[in-house]
Structures are given as C-alpha cells and as structure tokens.
Amino acid sequence: MHATNSLLTVAVALLLGTAAVAAQPAATAIAAATPGKPTVQVQQIRNATAKISYAGTTFLLDPLLAKKGAYPGFAGTFRSQLRNPMIELPMSVPEIMKGVDAVVVSHTHLDHWDGGNNRFIPRSIPLFVQDEADAKMIRAQGFTDVRILGQNTPFQGVLLSKTGGKHGTAEMYAVPQLAAGLGEAMGIVFQASGAKTVYVVGDTVWQSDVDQTLARFKPEVIIMNTGDARMVGFAGSIIMGKDDVLHAVRSAPNATIIASHMDAINHMTLSRKELKEHVRQHGIEQRVRIPADGDVLKF
Q: Quick check: helix, strand or coil at residue 144?
C-alpha cells in the first residue's frame, strides 16, 4: 500500500467533497408519455457523459467536455502518466448542448464534471447534484440554479431519485485520506408515466445500495459505469467491471444494460472490445448494449 503522502495526493487529485444530503419533496404528478413513440433515448457522448432524453425532457449527465489531453492523469491510479481525456469528443460541444434542459452531476470528480473549466454550459441552466458540498463548489464556479437531488425530485414532469453507492472497496475506505478523496457518488433513477424506468448506477462497486435500488424501482434500462478503474497499491476496482455486467443481467432479468465509462480515462482497465467479447462468451448480446461514442439508443 502506498504511503500517506501518496494517498493525500490522490485525495486532492480526485477533487470530491462530502456533505449530508438534503431531501426534496415528493412530486404529485408525473408527465405522461406519448403513445407509440420512444420515450427514452440515450446518446453515449464520451466516458460517463451521456445525453438522456426522457419523456420529452433532455438531461446531460456528467459532462466532461474538454478536448483530448486537456488534463493530467489521476495521481495514484493505473496509467497515471497518460493525459485525460484520452480521446476526442464525437461531436462539437454546441451540438452536445443543443436541446439540453438540465444537467445532472453524479459527483464532482474531474472525469464527471469539468463545467467550471469551460464556458460551454450556460451558468443559468438547472443543475442537479448529490449534496450541499457539491452544490457549493459548483455555485462558486458561477452556476446560479444548482439543486440538490433527493427522492422523487420533480423536473418538467419527470421524477428523479438519488440512489446510493460506494466509489471503491472497503479496504480503500478504511484509509481516511483516500476515503476523503473517493468521497460520495450517487446514482439516479428516472421515472415518468408510460416511460421505461431508467437507473443510472453511477461510480460505485456492486453493493447493497445497488440491490436495494433494483428491488425498489425495477428499472427496465440500467446504465452502468463499467470501465473497471483501478488504483495503484489496492486490489479491486473503484467502479464496476465485466463481471458486474453479468451480475446485472441475472439480477434484473427484464432490463436492458447499457455499458458506459470506458476507453477515455487513464485508470480504466476494461475496454469496450474486451467487454464485447465477455458478453459474447456468455451469450447475453441481446441484453447488453455497448454503444460507441455518439451512438443513440431508443427505448
């Protein structure tokens, strides 16, 4: 295991704060979907960034909009000598932002939120975060409509619910400096009348919060971060990997799995190519989608 100074470097590099979650009041109504039309559209952008059009409202998830190589690799992680992001965006930023009604930031690690480093995202756009610490950080970057996500938080007829997770193993969280750096990362459930329920699992390993969310919401579309990101000096991953995809297929037999968060950041150890082969070997191609950057999936 690395020395305390190295862990402190990682903690600073991961750029995440922690705070208590403020609950939001439940909504009294859910938007109705238009019969005969797809109500869910997911466009893979790059890394964990996705554009989710849901029951007539479009959300931008975890925007990382910098050009290739804009940032150094994360200290203390696998292949930290490489610069991030490792690939370019599949389209222009204005095209990505077109039609976006709100932004959802699962947590403020740089590979999920670099909005403070550019002017692409309007400072007045509604922006949902997991807690007051993240809200304070993003408000300080000039954003004026930052909202803390709770349970059944309404937005334009869509209900959004925060779900829990753990951004690493128990061994990692046993080291205080590292635990502070890993911090908290939420998942998000999207619901609307007539639309398939979507569960964005977020940056977490598989643990009880995931099981509880599957049991409670019974999602029909599950977006998983499956790059199997690794830290130097620790066994295990800080997010999910290929075996978790198989676990999801078995745990949610009526859901389509979308695999994301691969190929773009230095500490990812699972590629789309490897995951596709794993999926093929287990005969679950009909259940698992592995979109290329720019691909659009409709449900």
A: coil
Distance CA 121, CA 114 (A): 10
Instruction: Tell me the pairing of strands 102-104 and 127-129.
Output: parallel
Residue 127 φ/ψ region, left for φ over 0, alpha for ψ in the -120 to 50 degree band, beta for the rest: beta
**What are the tokens at 238?**
């800080």
The mean pLDDT value for 214-235 works out to: 97
* Six token digits for residue 116: 């403070």
Q: For residue 11, which phi and psi values (nearest 5 degrees)? A: -60, -40
Please write the tens of the pLDDT for every residue from 172-210. Answer: 999 999 999 999 999 999 999 999 999 999 999 999 999
Q: Could you tell me which residues come within 8 angstroms of residue 260 by beta carbon, excluding any fewer than 6 positions away?
A: 44, 47, 48, 50, 223, 224, 225, 226, 291
Write the Ramachandran bin of 136: left for phi over 0, alpha for psi from -120 to 50, otherwise beta. Answer: alpha
Helix (H) / strand (E) element for 13: namely helix 4-14
Task: Say if residues 215 and 224 touch (Cβ distance below 8 Å).
Answer: no
Beta strands in 37-156 (DSSP E): 40-46, 49-54, 57-61, 102-104, 127-129, 146-148, 153-155
Per-residue pLDDT reduced to its tens digit, 79-126:
999 999 999 999 999 999 999 999 999 999 999 999 988 888 999 999
Helix (H) or strand (E) segment spanning residue 136? helix 132-140
d(Cα 126, Cα 135) in Å, to the nearest integer? 12
